[in-house]
Write a structure and sequence with these properties.
8% strand, five-stranded antiparallel beta sheet, disordered N terminus, six-stranded antiparallel beta sheet, 4 domains, 39 helices, single chain, 44% helix, Jelly Rolls, flat
Length: 1106
């Protein structure tokens, strides 16, 4: 037993010993796992610290001088990888893990020895983060240096994440207006949330707002702010006397409803989009349809079109699924919007001749687009990433691709119904006229085709083989067998020539387009007149001859009227596989064939049709220019975006030629070929004549001619004539054998009726615009902005800031403009509503909540009332993007109704009035100065809309079409003065109308000696003073005092004190003394009252708004 027990005990000991060893191993393993876990956790924490604080700081403050991106790393130190930062530079290791004291980087950022970064020491929290990072082992996942692109991306990503924190790029905040101040003096300020925002800041600055302005001041301020015109006397009198509680609201609504409101706000927006009626540069070419865009804005503001709709229309109005149609005027309003893109300065020519033209064009458009709609400066990223804002160079070219993918062309804005009734009548009359013509021509041929008449037109020299007289020319001096043999010889000659022509054409030409089969899908067509024509259709002309030629089957613009327009545009030429095309076409009256390269629409390579007979033209397709987007365009005057062209291009054009809408072209077929030669003429129609008999005399030959031509006329009448036969009939029309006279007794009634109806055709209205016709184009990044150094193409898109994670993930089939418009007009866009409500605030108060209305980026100002700005933006969106509702809400505030009185304490606390403690006095805009003179002088013409008039000029320049207009502009508002980039109106420029080359959200307001001289001497001022002076001599007043009171109250929109009248009476008598006018003659002397009017115009009160 003992031994057995001993054995047992011994086994237990051994088992326990073994288990103890197992436990030891397990404990060790647990310790290792625990250490590993702790280490991993530490590593995770270290990576997070590195990525959140260390890497961004290194990139932001150090990489510029200490990375592979630097031209020459400072001190041989690189900080862009783990190995390089631990290796250090000339002074030793920059970072030694766990050893802060040995890490030179810490010394540098503490500015203990080296001072890095050199411009400004890092904040203490960042320095502490570096110390913590090193103490924890300097975890650094950058296991190798990044390549140049990856490094650039890394640098940009850090910059982007930092820059997008700027206030204007944050989503609109939901803001609750401040509570009412429980003080009696501010009760009136409690009703409006806007006032409460403003009052809260004023109260925090211990500023008391100015008292309310007097009613005369308010009505004048209201009238000029909303209409740009002084109030009429009846409104002043009514408002001053109206003491109803809602009288102010009543007058605000009245002026908001004024048709002149649209004119005033259109001019505001025209500043923003740098409106001009010309394209500037060397020749100041007219901008087709610009004034229609101006009228479009007037109508839009008057009808309070929602701003988000206006955005969509101006950016992509041609692409909207449901365009805004104006049936009253017969217009597609939405199609006018993209004229926005065509505003601004444009160089003439194209990039095949002068590289850089379209690049400058697109830069101008991006600059205007981004400032106008987003209040940012995307164009600053053309050559490199934006220096301050989260906008990369890639994004600039992504947007360039969107805008360049569309074609920049002219668009017809008429609705189909505009001329529908008239055109229907023309078709009916024309059908009857065609039958009558066929009868007359058949009779003409039967009676006129005789040997003598055939002989009478034979030229002394040889004729081309395809001429209608060619067979007769060879036989007209022969008879008998010789005539018959010659007839047969000519027949053989033409048969061989016809066979050779057909063989040549088959071997060398490929039919590209046969327009008799319709317009192919890859061609783009526009215009009221462009339509399919059958063989033998014709144009009814004005003048002695009513017809000149017949159309071949295909397309034409003048089948019903040459006043109708049309444009026909080819596919992009790089899609064609042959170097030349031959085009069989006709045209006249300054219709043009154009070569458009990379959307440079002011192309020099346009040829004007001057041949109403069909003829061949051979054009290059520019092989080897695959990266270019080139297309051909046939265009009538009104559909040509470059008509009238610059001086000297094509022909010298008079104003009458430019204004005349008549213009036409017709196209039959286009062939492609390897050689620059046209197809040869087919002669099959002549073979029918020569095969029809074997004449032995001239009489027999004439009979064959007669029967042949009668058959051709009958085939034309019945609609069976072939193309070759139509060409013969066109040849026939060049002879005296058939009538073309509009006075023919059997044709005159129908011709006159047709012409009467055709005179009622309204010329189509066109504007320069856009069309998406081609597959979208991704634009190549221009390295350092150089168009000679192209990088990779950039997928089309917008800003990552706006698109978020969807940035560049969508590749639209076409341009992407519609998507762009949606992104800009989206209520979630942090910029759009903020920028616009700030503009409106600026227009109302003379300064914006952000005082840089075109720049909400880092270089722009910060909002004086950020919560108010976001509240207004949200309110604006909630109220349907209504401009009028926003304006009304601002006008009903106490802040807007303040007087201009200030206190010393207010000026001391807020010298620039950013808190709006008073309503700042400001000079009237340039247009308002002129309009006020027109209004008070009685010369004002209130008509809205229409083509602009030239500004008055002392010298004209015919070569640049810088002509002078009437001094007073026919009494029309200054808004309707032509805005020319080259030599704009000197009167308006003197009073700071902005130069129309760049967007101007805030006009300069300078007070210069030139303005005083202009008010003293400009013919516009002198003429209106004279007009007013003459008018008041007939006003019925019997005393100088009464007349002076009337003139002054009209000019200043207020009642006049007796002391003022006394002063002006003395001035009047001084004028009388100077001009030797007796006291009895004062009331009748127009020159004296002209002097008074002129003096009033020179008063500060007249041109300033209190």
């Amino acid at each position: 037993m003992l031994s057995n027990r001993g054995w047992w005990n011994s086994g237990l000991d051994r088992a326990e010993s073994k288990n103890a060893k197992i436990r030891q191993v397990l404990h060790a393993l647990c310790a290792i796992v625990s250490l590993a876990s702790t280490s991993n956790a530490a590593n995770d924490d270290g990576v997070e610290l590195f990525e959140k604080q260390i890497r961004p700081t290194l990139i932001k403050h150090c990489y510029e001088c200490h990375s592979l991106a630097a031209a020459e790393p400072g001190g041989g130190l690189l900080l862009d990888s783990r190995d390089s930062i631990r290796k250090g530079g000339e002074s030793g290791p920059a970072v030694v893990p766990y050893r802060v004291a040995d890490s030179l980087l810490v010394e540098a950022i503490r500015h203990q020895s080296l001072e890095m970064p050199p411009k400004k020491k890092l904040d203490e929290a960042t320095i502490d983060a570096f110390i913590e990072w090193i103490e924890d082992g300097a975890v650094d996942p950058r296991d190798k240096p990044a390549d140049a692109k990856a490094l650039a991306d890394e640098i940009w990503e850090v910059a982007y994440q930092s820059r997008k924190q700027w206030w204007s790029f944050q989503p609109l905040a939901t803001v609750v207006p401040p509570a009412e101040l429980d003080r009696d003096e501010f009760n009136a300020w409690s009703a409006s949330p806007i006032d409460r925002f403003l009052l809260a800041k004023l109260d925090s600055q211990k500023i008391t707002p100015a008292p309310k302005a007097d009613r005369a001041t308010l009505i004048r301020r209201l009238a000029f702010t909303l209409t740009g015109l002084p109030p009429v006397a009846a409104d002043i009198d009514s408002f001053v006397k109206d003491r109803r509680a809602d009288s102010w609201e009543h007058f605000v609504d009245k002026y908001l409803a004024s048709e002149h409101f649209g004119e005033r706000f259109a001019r505001h927006w025209m500043d923003v989009v740098r409106y001009s009626d010309t394209y500037g540069y060397e020749w100041d070419v007219p901008a087709k349809g610009a004034w229609r865009y101006r009228d479009y804005l007037i109508r839009a503001f008057n009808t309070d079109v929602p701003y988000d709709q206006l955005i969509r229309e101006q950016l992509a109005g041609d692409l909207l699924e449901t365009p805004r149609l104006n049936h009253e005027l017969g217009l597609n309003e939405s199609l006018i919007g993209p004229m926005f893109y065509h505003l601004g300065e444009h160089r003439h020519g194209d990039s095949l001749e002068f590289e850089g033209i379209h690049q400058e064009m697109i830069d101008n458009k991006i600059d205007a687009f981004s400032k106008a709609f987003q209040g940012i400066t995307i164009a600053c990223a053309r050559c490199h990433d934006h220096k301050l804002d989260p906008i990369s160079q890639q994004e600039y070219y992504a947007l360039a691709g969107v805008l360049m993918s569309s074609r920049w062309i002219s668009r017809t804005i008429d609705l189909p119904e505009r001329n529908a009734v008239t055109l229907s009548k023309l078709r009916s009359v024309k059908a009857a006229l065609r039958e009558r013509i066929a009868e007359v021509w058949r009779a003409d041929v039967a009676s006129n085709i005789t040997p003598p008449t055939l002989d009478s037109i034979q030229p002394p020299t040889a004729l081309p083989i395809g001429d209608i007289n060619y067979p007769w020319h060879h036989i007209h001096k022969l008879e008998g067998a010789e005539l018959g043999d010659t007839w047969n010889a000519v027949r053989q000659q033409l048969a061989v020539a016809d066979q050779e022509a057909n063989a040549f054409n088959r071997a060398n030409f490929e039919l590209l387009v046969d327009f008799s089969r319709g317009i192919p899908d890859d061609w783009n067509a526009d215009g009221v007149g462009l339509e399919p024509v059958r063989a033998g259709d014709f144009q009814v002309l004005r003048g002695e001859d009513f017809i000149q030629s017949l159309f071949l089957p295909g397309v034409a613009t003048s089948n019903l009227s040459s006043k109708l327009n049309g444009a026909l545009r080819s596919p992009l030429l790089h899609t064609l596989d042959k170097p030349f095309v031959s085009i069989f076409s006709a045209g006249n009256d300054l219709s043009a064939f154009r070569r458009v390269v990379d959307n440079a629409f002011l192309c020099e390579k346009q040829k004007y049709f001057a041949n109403s007979n069909y003829h061949w033209t051979v054009e290059s397709t520019f092989p080897g220019q695959g990266r270019r987007r080139i297309f051909f365009e046939f265009a009538t005057k009104t559909s040509n975006p470059n008509f009238p062209p610059r001086w000297g291009l094509g022909t010298k054009l008079t104003d009458d030629m430019i204004a005349d809408p008549n213009s036409w072209f017709a196209v039959n077929k286009i062939y492609a070929s390897e050689k620059a030669a046209p197809p040869k003429k087919r002669l099959s129609a002549f073979l029918k004549l020569l095969d029809s008999g074997h004449p032995r005399s001239k009489s027999e030959a004439a009979e064959l001619y007669r029967r042949w031509l009668v058959q051709l006329v009958e085939a034309w009448r019945d609609g069976h004539a072939t193309e070759d036969e139509i060409l013969v009939l066109n040849n026939l029309l060049q002879t005296p054998w058939v009538t073309k006279s509009a006075n023919h007794p059997e044709l005159q009634t129908l011709v006159d009726e047709y012409r009467r109806i055709e005179s009622q055709v309204e010329p189509p209205r066109t504007v320069n615009g856009m069309v998406d016709h081609d597959i979208g184009m991704d634009y190549a990044l221009n390295i350092r902005g150089s168009y000679y150094d192209l990088g990779d193409t950039v997928p089309r898109g917008y800003l990552r800031l706006i698109e978020g994670e969807q940035y560049q993930t969508s590749r639209p089939e076409h341009s992407g403009r519609l998507r762009l418009a949606g992104l800009v007009a989206d209520a979630k866009n942090p910029l759009t509503a903020r920028v616009y409500v700030n503009r409106v605030w600026h227009w109302m108060f003379g300064q914006g909540i952000v005082d840089t209305p075109d720049n909400f980026g880092k270089l722009g100002g910060q909002p004086s009332h950020p919560e108010l700005l976001d509240w207004l933006a949200n309110r604006f969106i909630e109220q349907g993007w209504s401009t009028k509702k926003l304006v009304r809400e601002i006008l009903l505030t106490q802040a807007w109704q303040q007087s201009g009185r200030t206190s010393h304490a207010a000026i001391e606390a807020d010298p620039t009035n950013r808190s709006l403690h008073h309503f700042a006095t400001r000079r009237l805009d340039a247009e308002c100065v002129g309009d006020a003179m027109l209004a008070v002088s009685g010369r004002f013409n209130p008509a809205l809309y229409g083509a602009p008039h030239n500004p008055f000029r002392t010298a004209e320049d015919e070569t640049k079409r810088l002509f002078s207009g009437p001094v007073e502009g026919d009494g029309r508002r200054m808004l309707y003065t032509k805005v020319t980039i080259m030599e704009p109106s000197k009167f308006l420029a003197t009073f700071n109308q902005p130069e129309p080359k760049i967007p101007t959200g805030r006009r300069e307001v300078a007070d210069t000696p030139t303005q005083a001289l202009t008010l003293l001497n400009h013919p516009f001022v002198l003429n209106l003073a004279k007009h007013w002076g003459l008018a008041v001599t007939k006003d019925g007043n019997t005393t100088p005092e009464a007349r002076l009171e009337a003139m002054l109250s009209t000019a200043f929109s207020r009642s006049v004190e007796s002391t003022e009248i006394n002063q002006w009476t003395h001035t009047l008598h001084d004028f009388a003394t100077l001009r030797n006018v007796t006291k009895d003659d004062i009331m009748a002397n127009a020159q004296l009252w002209t002097d008074v009017a002129h003096t009033i115009f020179n008063c500060k009160e007249f041109i300033y708004l209190k």
